[in-house]
Design brief:
Strand content: 25-35%
Number of strands: 7
Oligomer: single chain
CATH architecture of the largest domain: 3-Layer(aba) Sandwich
Order of helices and strands: EHEHEEEHHHHEEHH
CATH superfamily of the largest domain: Glycogen Phosphorylase B
Strand order of the largest sheet: 1-2-5-4-3
Amino acid sequence: MKLLFVGAEALPFASTGGLADVLGSLPAALKRDQGDDLDIRVVLPLYQSISEKYRDKMEKVTEYYVQLSWRNQYCGLYSYELNDVTYYFIDNEYYFGRDKMDALPQQCRSCKWLFACNGGCPKDRFLKTEMGEGGLNYMCKGFMQIFERVAPYMDFMKNELQHQRPPANVMEWAREIKP
């Protein structure tokens, strides 16, 4: 079976919170549990903050340009293998540069879900916050509803991983609690 994870962060490469813990450990735990029957890949942004010790060992897979409205955007793809899991890194300074975090309004920087969304894609930040500050993602309320809904399941899986148990136990747990 093939399994693809796509996220904004994963340990040990990039982390601002709990999502990095889960995406950093869940693929490797599944691989240990399923062995060669499972081909796991993870796709992440190639942030500038990723350590050189990983960057230096990444292999360039390809590069291309994507037509987005009036501009052509460079997109590079790099790979790195860790714990029998292949990680792909998408290189694009415009979308994944440090400005993505530094330009967030105060409402985002103080949000309990910042670790999960990081303000979302910069192109979607055109609303004003409750205090009138620009740069709020128009999908913010929807993100918050989703994160509230999945939080117990993510917490359960994190706990399972911390106790060296399969995170897939969440399936039985979810059937029992009937959310």
